[in-house]
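One record is given unchanged without comment:
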Amino acid sequence: MPLKLSLKPGEAVIINGAVLRNGERRGTVLLENQARVLREKDVLRPEQVQSGSQRAYFAIMQLYLTGKASGSIYDQAVAALSDAMCEAKTPSERERIISISRACVAGEIYQALSSCRKLMKLQAQDEDRHHG
C-alpha cells in the first residue's frame, strides 16, 4: 500500500536524502515503495541544537537520513544519547533514553527518532511549566 503525503504550498519533505519542495498549491505525493521520509517540520538544523536530547535527535536523524546504522554517525548518536542520559532529570526521561538506545541498537532508527521527538516535547513542556 503506498504512503500518501499531502504537502502544503512550499512545504518540503526529504525522501532518501533528496529534498523535494512542493509548489505554490497543495499537493500529494504517493510513495509506492519503501523510502526514508522526513517532513521539513521534523528536521532539526545544527544551529537549533541546544540540549542533550536535541543532540541525540540530530544524530539519530543523520542515521535515518543516510540509511546507515553503523560507523562514525552511529558513534555520534551513541555519544549524544550518553550525554542526554547525563542531563536527564527524571526516571521517566532516563527510561525513554534507554528505549531510544534500544531502538537504535535494533536498527529501528525511525522508531528511535520518533521517540526522541516525544522526549524533546516532554522536556520543552517541563521547561515551560518551570518558567511559566
About this structure: The mean pLDDT is 91. Residues 44-131 form one domain. The radius of gyration is 16 Å.
